[in-house]
Amino acid sequence: MLKFILAIIYFIIGTLLGSFCTLAVYRIPLKEDITHKRSFCPNCNHKLNFLDLIPVWSYIFLGGKCRYCKKPIRARYIILELLSGIAFMVFGLSFDIDLYNTQITDLIFILFGMIYLCVFEITAGIDFENKKFEKGVLNFELIITIIYMLYLCILGVNMYRYIIYFIIILGMFIFRRIKPSYTLDLITYLLLALVYIGTKTMFLTIIVTLFAIALKNIIDISNKQEKKYAIGGIFSVILIINLVIQNYSLI
Ligand SMILES: [Zn+2]
What we know:
Shape: globular
Bound molecules: zinc ion
Radius of gyration: 19 Å
Helix content: 55-70%
Oligomer: single chain
Structural class: mainly alpha
Distance between the termini: 30 Å
Number of helices: 8
Largest sheet: none
Order of helices and strands: HHHHHHHH
Mean pLDDT: 87
């Protein structure tokens, strides 16, 4: 029963995060404020009230339409919120937290997981929509990574490996300033993610991503569309799946 309640809580947090990520994907490339400005309907510009903002439920409650102008809300939003809810529920449950005897280290690890899941979701969304990485998102990921490494240091983890990662990451940030490119952004993003998810998950993610891109190439070979893939987006989706299930697998 407790596990069920916990699952519901994780799911609700996940849908809220998903809702925030959808908003961030839309606003960050437009250089709009993501925390202080109220949400509005993209069609009639009417400001949304609190009830309109509850993820998933508002969509069902309003019948998939804007309350004010009755224009259908894109189904993409509810799908992303639901997926986010499920991802976070599976991720949270993998920690097998005992409500009466909670380990604070587990809670902090879940908190970091939440933040990283958001970063991956936002990166995926922006890359699928615009085929690029946003500087602000990478900078945010850098800050989170520094905080995470400080936390590991406090826990007494051997930092040798992390210091090497960090030097390479700083090098990438300098390179990106000199010669900005999608590839450099992608490598920087992967290195930052590596600090949190570890080498095994990263290795698996890279292999599956390469496989997915190869497969996409084979499928796309017949129709000669522009050959530009949202590699960061594909990578992020696989990264999310691997991160969510990594505590269950024994590899
Ligand atoms: Zn509207």
